[in-house]
Design goal:
alpha+beta; 66% helix; disordered N terminus; 747 residues; elongated; 8 strands; five-stranded antiparallel β-sheet
C-alpha cells in the first residue's frame, strides 16, 4: 500500500510541475491571491517524501524534471516577442553577408587546402590511413585483376553476339532500339560481373577491415563509376555508331558530350576518394575541399553545355519534320536555362551551407543537375515512345490527317506533363520534400494550397488534352475522305456521320466547361470567394435569356434540329430557298456554301422547313429527244446495255444502287419523241455517272444510226418544180427566218 501511495504522490508532483511549465505565468495581482502550498510541504515534506522513495522512483522523477525543464527552456526561447525579431530584409542581408564571408573564407583557406591535400596523400602513401601502402596497392590490384578477368571471360562468352552487333546495321527504329538495348545489356552485364567478383574477392582475401574499406572505395569511385557513366552515355549517344544513336545529334556533339561527361565523372570519382583520404587523415579542410570541387564540377558542366548548345537544341527538336513554334522556342531556350539553373543551384547550395541548412547538400545538388541536363534526352525518348504507341491514321483526306496530327500532339503534351511532374517530384524528393504528402500535419497553409493549385491546373490541362484526343480520334474514324472531283462537279455529296457532325460542338462545350471549372477551383484555392461569381453568372444568364429571345430561339431550334438528325456536315440542303453544302455548324447558325461559292449564314430560328438533298440515295432522270421515226424499243435496249456496262466499271460499281435503264416514252413535242432513263446512286456520285452516260449514249446512237431530234423546216415543192441552187438557198433562208421570228403577242 505504501508503494502505491508513493507512486501516486510522485505522479502528482510531476503533474504540478507539468502544469507550471505549460501554463503561462500569472500576473502579480493574480499571484498574490493564488493559494500556494504551505512552506513545510514545499521544503521539508518534499525532502522527507523523496527520502522515502526507492532509487528507481527517484531516478524516474529526476528524469521527468529534467525533461520538463528542457521543455520550459524551449518554450522560453520560442516566446521571443515579435517586435524583437529582425525583418525580412535584415534576414536576407545577414544571409548574404554570411554567404560572402563563407566564400571569402574558402579562398583564404586555399593554402591550407593544398597543404592538407598533400598531407593526406602523404599519410596515405606513408601507411598512416590504411596501413602500409604496398599492402593497400596490392589489395587494389587484386580487386581490379579479379574484376577485369571476370569481365573479360563474360565478354569472351558474348564475343559472337558483340561481333554480330558490330557487323549488322539496323533497318528500322524497333531494330535500332533492340540492338542498342542488347549492347547496353552486355556492357552493364560485364560491369556488374566486375563489381560482384571484386566485392567477393575482397571479402574473402582481404583481412584488414581498414585496407578492405579503402580499397573498395578506390575501386568504386576511381574505376567503376566512370565506366558505368560511360556505358550509360554509349547507350544514349552511341558516339561511334551513328546508326544506333537514340537521339538526333551529329557526330561532333555526340562525341563531345560522351568524352566530356566521362572525364567529368572520372574527376568526380577521384575527388570523392581524395575527400575520404582527407577525412581519414584528420584534416579540417573538408568544407573547403567540397566547395572547390563543386565549383569545378559546375563550371565544367556549364562549359560543356555552352560548347554543345546548338547540338542540344537539335537533340530536343529530334526528328520533327514540322516542329511547332513552342518546341522550337523550348529547344533554343533550354541550353541557356540549364546553364542558368546550374549557377543558381550552386549558389543555393552555398547559401544553405553558410546558413547551416543541411538539406541542400552537394550530392543532392549534383543529382538535380543531372536530371535537368538530361531532361531533353527524356523528352526525346518520350516523343519516340509516343510515335510507336499512337494509333495509325484512320480514314483518308485532310480531316483524317489533321486529326492524326492533333492526336500525336496531344499524346506528346500528355507525356510532357507526366515528365515535368516526374522531374518536380524527383527534385523535391532529392531535396527531402515529399510533395505528394505536403499539406499534412506540420505543413504551412501556403504550401498546401500551392500544391493543390498546381494539381488542379495539371488535372484541368490533362482533361483538356484528353477531350482533344478523343474528339480527334473520332473525327479521323468517322470522317469520309474527300472525293477527287473534276472542276465542273456539282455539290450535293454525302455528308459526314452524325457523330462527326456534333463532335465539334461537344468539344467546344467540354472545353468551356473544363476551363470554367479549373478557373473557379483555382481561384478558390487562392482564397477568392467564388460564391459571388457563381451568383453573378446566374444573374447574367437570366438577363441574357430575357433580353436575347431571338438568340435563345436559335439555340433551342438548333438543339432540336440536331436531335432530329436533320442535317450533317457536308450535306447539301435547301433551307427555305437558301441552298448550299453545310461547311460549319455553330451553336446558333449554319454556314452554307452555295453552288456559286457564296457563303450563307442561316440562323436555326429562321428555318421554317428544311430539305435535305444528300440523305441515303439520289435518283437522277435523264431525258433524250429523238426523231418521230426512231425505234423506241431499240433505244430501251441500248440504255439497258449502257447501264450494264457502267455497273462493271470499277469507278462506279460500288456507288450504283440501281443501274441506268430506260423508262420508255416520257413526252412528245413538236420536235420529236422524248425518251427517259434513270439511275440511283449514293449522294454526290450521280454527276460523274451522268457524264459517263451522256458520252456512251452519244456513241451508241451514232453507231446505230439514231440521231438526236432538232428543230427543222421542211418545204414541200411539187415534183415538176425546177429550181436552181440560188433559188433553193433563198427559199431555205426565208423558211428559217419564219421559224426564228418572234411570235406576236397573244399568238
Amino acid at each position: 500500500m505504501t508503494g502505491v501511495w508513493k507512486t501516486t504522490v510522485t505522479a502528482c508532483i510531476a503533474l504540478l510541475c507539468l502544469v507550471q511549465v505549460i501554463l503561462p505565468p500569472a500576473p502579480a495581482s493574480a499571484q498574490s491571491s493564488t493559494s500556494t502550498l504551505p512552506a513545510p510541504l514545499q521544503q521539508e515534506a518534499m525532502e522527507k517524501l523523496v527520502s522515502d522513495l526507492d532509487p528507481q522512483q527517484v531516478k524516474a522523477l529526476t528524469d521527468l524534471m529534467t525533461l520538463l525543464q528542457q521543455g520550459a527552456e524551449a518554450k522560453g526561447q520560442t516566446a521571443t516577442p515579435a517586435e524583437n525579431r529582425p525583418g525580412i530584409f535584415e534576414q536576407v542581408e545577414t544571409a548574404l553577408d554570411n554567404l560572402g564571408l563563407a566564400i571569402a573564407g574558402y579562398f583564404l583557406n586555399l593554402p591550407a587546402l593544398l597543404t592538407g591535400l598533400v598531407t593526406g596523400i602523404g599519410d596515405l602513401l606513408a601507411g598512416k590511413i590504411a596501413g602500409p601502402f604496398h599492402i593497400l596497392a596490392g589489395a587494389i590490384a587484386l580487386l581490379l585483376a579479379a574484376g577485369f578477368i571476370a569481365e573479360f571471360l563474360v565478354n569472351r562468352l558474348a564475343a559472337s553476339r558483340r561481333a554480330s552487333l558490330r557487323s549488322h546495321s539496323p533497318t528500322s527504329l524497333y531494330e535500332t532500339v533492340k540492338m542498342v538495348s542488347t549492347r547496353a545489356g552486355l556492357d552493364l552485364g560485364g560491369l556488374i560481373v566486375f563489381a560482384v567478383v571484386a566485392l567477393v574477392v575482397g571479402r574473402i582475401f582481404l583481412v584488414d577491415p581498414q585496407v578492405k574499406t579503402v580499397a573498395f572505395q578506390a575501386v568504386f569511385w576511381i574505376v567503376f563509376l566512370p565506366r558505368l557513366i560511360a556505358a550509360l552515355l554509349r547507350f544514349a549517344l552511341a558516339p561511334h555508331r551513328p546508326e544506333l544513336r537514340l537521339v538526333t545529334a551529329d557526330d561532333h556533339t555526340a562525341k563531345s558530350l560522351y568524352r566530356n561527361f566521362t572525364m567529368l565523372f572520372a574527376f568526380v570519382g577521384i575527388s570523392f576518394f581524395l575527400g575520404i583520404v582527407i577525412r581519414d587523415a584528420g584534416e579540417t579542410i573538408g568544407e573547403t575541399f567540397r566547395f572547390f570541387v563543386s565549383f569545378a564540377v559546375n563550371a565544367w558542366i556549364v562549359a560543356v553545355l555552352w560548347k554543345a548548345r546548338r547540338g542540344l537544341t537539335n537533340i530536343i527538336l529530334g526528328d520533327e519534320k514540322e516542329p511547332t513554334s513552342g518546341l522550337e522556342r523550348m529547344a533554343s531556350f533550354w541550353p541557356y536555362f540549364s546553364m542558368a539553373f546550374i549557377v543558381f543551384n550552386w549558389l543555393l547550395v552555398q547559401f544553405s551551407v553558410s546558413m547551416g541548412i543541411e538539406t541542400l547538400t552537394a550530392t543532392r545538388s549534383f543529382a538535380v543537375i543531372i536530371l535537368v541536363v538530361f531532361a531533353p534526352f527524356l523528352d526525346t525518348m518520350a516523343r519516340g515512345i509516343v510515335s510507336h504507341i499512337i494509333p495509325p491514321k484512320q480514314g483518308e483526306g485532310p480531316v483524317a490527317e489533321a486529326a492524326h496530327r492533333q492526336s500525336r500532339h496531344s499524346y506528346v503534351r500528355i507525356a510532357r506533363v507526366a515528365l515535368v511532374a516526374f522531374l518536380i517530384l524527383a527534385i523535391g524528393r532529392i531535396y527531402g520534400l515529399n510533395l505528394l504528402a505536403i499539406g499534412g500535419d506540420g505543413e504551412t497553409t501556403v504550401a498546401r494550397h500551392t500544391v493543390i493549385l498546381l494539381l488542379i491546373l495539371a488535372a484541368g490541362y490533362l482533361a483538356w488534352e484528353i477531350i482533344n484526343l478523343w474528339v480527334a480520334h473520332q473525327l479521323a474514324k468517322d470522317s469520309p475522305p474527300v472525293a477527287n472531283e473534276d472542276d465542273d462537279a456539282e455539290m450535293g455529296g454525302a455528308g459526314k456521320s452524325r457523330l462527326a457532325t456534333i463532335l465539334p460542338l461537344i468539344r467546344v462545350i467540354s472545353q468551356i466547361t473544363i476551363l470554367t471549372l479549373t478557373v473557379l477551383l483555382a481561384l478558390s484555392q487562392l482564397g477568392v470567394n467564388i460564391t459571388p461569381l457563381l451568383a453573378g453568372a446566374g444573374v447574367i444568364g437570366l438577363a441574357v435569356g430575357f433580353g436575347a429571345q431571338t438568340l435563345v430561339r436559335d439555340v433551342v431550334s438548333g438543339i432540336f434540329f440536331l436531335m432530329d438528325d436533320a442535317f450533317r456536315l457536308g450535306e447539301f440542303i435547301d433551307a427555305d430557298g437558301t441552298m448550299g453544302s453545310i461547311e460549319k455548324i455553330s451553336i446558333r447558325s449554319l454556314q452554307l456554301r452555295g453552288t456559286r461559292g457564296a457563303v450563307h449564314i442561316v440562323p436555326y430560328g429562321e428555318i421554317p422547313k428544311l430539305t435535305n438533298l444528300s440523305r441515303d440515295w439520289v435518283i437522277m432522270k435523264l431525258k433524250f429527244t429523238v426523231p418521230f421515226d426512231t425505234d423506241v424499243e431499240k433505244v430501251r435496249k441500248l440504255f439497258k446495255k449502257i447501264g450494264q456496262e457502267i455497273m462493271e466499271m470499277d469507278e462506279f460499281k460500288d456507288d450504283i444502287l440501281a443501274p441506268f435503264k430506260g423508262q420508255g416514252v416520257a413526252d412528245v413535242d413538236d420536235v420529236g419523241i422524248v425518251v427517259r432513263g434513270k439511275f440511283t446512286t449514293k449522294p454526290g456520285k450521280q454527276f460523274g455517272m451522268r457524264k459517263e452516260i451522256y458520252k456512251r449514249v452519244q456513241q451508241a446512237f451514232e453507231e446505230n444510226g439514231i440521231q438526236f431530234a432538232r428543230k427543222e423546216v421542211r418545204v414541200h415543192m411539187p415534183d415538176n418544180t425546177k429550181l436552181d441552187n440560188e433559188q433553193k438557198q433563198q427559199i431555205a433562208a426565208a423558211a428559217a427566218e419564219s421559224v426564228s421570228a418572234p411570235k406576236p403577242a397573244g399568238g
